[in-house]
Amino acid sequence: MTHTATRIPDGFLWGASTAAHQIEGNNTNSDWWRKEHTPGTRIAEPSLDACDSYHRWREDMDLLADLGFTDYRFSIEWARIEPAPGHFSRAELDHYRRMVEGALERGLRPMVTLHHFTVPQWFEERGGWTADGSAELFARFAERSGAVVSEGVRHVCTINEPNMIAVMAGAAKAGDVGFPPAGLPTPDEETTEAVIAAHLAAKAALRVAAPGALIGWTIANQVYQPLPGAEEVTAAYRYPREDVFIEAAREDDWIGVQSYTRTRIGPDGPIPAPGDAERTLTQWEYYPPAVGHALRHTAAVAGDVPLIVTENGIATDDDARRIDYYTGALSEVASALDDGLDVRGYLAWSALDNYEWGSYRPTFGLIAVDARSFERTPKPSGRWLGAIGRTRELPRAAS
């Protein structure tokens, strides 16, 4: 049940998101491809063909446009564009430029991400983000990406979830023991500084290569909620995992808010969700209000920077539950808009059931993909969510 709707503002982004490595398939020059095929990395299964979206992107865009979406966030793959240091593939740049043009032809505004968790193998071999000159190398890639984004692309994201890059680097330095039962590993401070420097360098390069683009990055917001008396503990825990990256975006054109669940913090740190809490296929607590908390916290830290929800969704095989989740989440977005927050768009994760960094089991997609035939089938949730792009009214969850 829903009641009073909130009208979507003019120009509001309404779409879904994907990442190249998770949907394209056969990204053989990337660091993740190597990890997937290296024994002992604890990766359940390799990406292989993924959704074959490298060849089927037209069908993906057709479906999104037909469902009613007006925007599509996708990433371009650095490992394809620059497979060897200093060698930029004109064919791959042309490929991604065709995707931009294809989106525009279908009435989809493209949001392009330059880095979504994968780097070329050669970049990893030279030491990754913390090696000397890495910020300049990423800026060089951003400059060359102007061939893709200089026309028709309004929003460009430099780096997706830099805080998670720092967290994963911290886990690796600690022996890659995996994630704790609640909360995140301690981020690597050197990596934090390096990705912030890379973002700033890429932004400067894009100002020249794509002067009409609005540039930002996206942060994974964990929605840290303090128990009574744990406010200072929460602030200290959150800062290196989140707020330092939000602060780095204060001079950006926009900032991407990405949230899925919450993390409660007690006097001694993160507390696991109750044993009887509903959990998703990623084992996260089912918590639709997360996006509202994330928007408000980001606005409080970032100041006047416009906000875009660039990822929000649920891994479930119960599509009715997916609709329930989105109803609750969009109610929070509506409340944020009603309260005057400068929210410029909402892009769901994910357009397709895809490779979720080690496994195909967590299904976030609004569109199902057959693993053998690659046949795409829109889910009822995709039809329901896409239709909001036509009604232009956000649902409000019944209280």
From TrEMBL:
It comes from the Bacteria. It is an enzyme of class 3 (hydrolase). The keyword Protein transport does not apply. Keywords: Glycosidase, Hydrolase. Coiled coil: none annotated. One of its GO terms (molecular function) is hydrolase activity, acting on glycosyl bonds. Belongs to the glycosyl hydrolase 1 family. This is Glycoside hydrolase family 1 protein. It comes from Marinactinospora rubrisoli. The lineage of its organism: Bacteria, Bacillati, Actinomycetota, Actinomycetes, Streptosporangiales.
